[in-house]
Amino acid sequence: MAQMTLHLDYALATQSHIDEDADVCGDTGLIKNTDEGVFLALIDGLGHGPDADEIARQARSYLEHAYRKASLVDIIQGLHQSLRRTKGAVVALCRINTSSGELNYAGVGNISAKLYAPNPITFVPREGIVGDVMSSPREETLILSPGMVLILHSDGLPAHKDFSGALSSERSAQAIAEGLLFEYGKDDDDVSCIVVKVD
Q1: pLDDT tens digits for 73-113?
Q2: Per the database record, which ranges form the PPM-type phosphatase domain (predicted)?
Q3: If both were cysteines, with which of 36, 64, 76, 141 could 137 make a disulfide (CB 3.0 to 4.6 Å apart)?
């Protein structure tokens, strides 16, 4: 039996606090293609404005070099050390293997991560702040199948909102991500989300 390879459509969207310039944002993300599939990270530096922007940039810079590490837990632990002299950040990391369909997730703090499927799955992050005080990270694993949609978002979007109505199969991941920020994003906070459509 031939192995099925998943096809992914993914996008990152960010929006700055209403009082800040568009290029000053405490929320950021990273999407990297890998030999096995894709690595995803969403980062929310504490607060907003230039200080949060600097934390987010530092976190992203670390992840640019560390994303190939085998363990998401190791990546978070390394980032924890990297952000020690800052106010810290909350972070969600995912790795998707397109050949096996395996999704690995690890998160600390209030980045929401939900897999929209016939039976939706909400990932539970560990408590704390990366760079300050945090619980020991934990990696979760599940298997993806076509038709699922993964959404990671910061607290600039409502934490317990059901976004299933916005996930039309006709819309691209980029259109969905930008639409969520336009429709639900808070003006008084930085906002970010990553959308992954699985085909």
Answers
A1: 999 999 999 999 999 999 999 999 999 999 999 999 999 99
A2: 9-198
A3: 76
Q: Which domains are seen in the chain, by residue range?
A: 8-198 (3.60.40.10)
Mean pLDDT of each 10-residue bin along the chain, 199 residues long: 78 94 95 96 94 97 94 97 96 97 97 94 95 95 95 94 89 96 93 96
DSSP labels, 128-194: B-BTS-BPPP--EEEE--TT-EEEEE-TTS-TT---GGG--TTS-HHHHHHHHHHHH--TTS-EEEE
65: how many CB neighbours lie within 10 A of its CB?
Answer: 10
The pTM (predicted TM-score) of the whole model is 0.95
* CA count, 13 A, side-chain hemisphere, 45: 27
Smallest CA-to-CA distance from 68 within 91, 108, 36, 44 is with 36
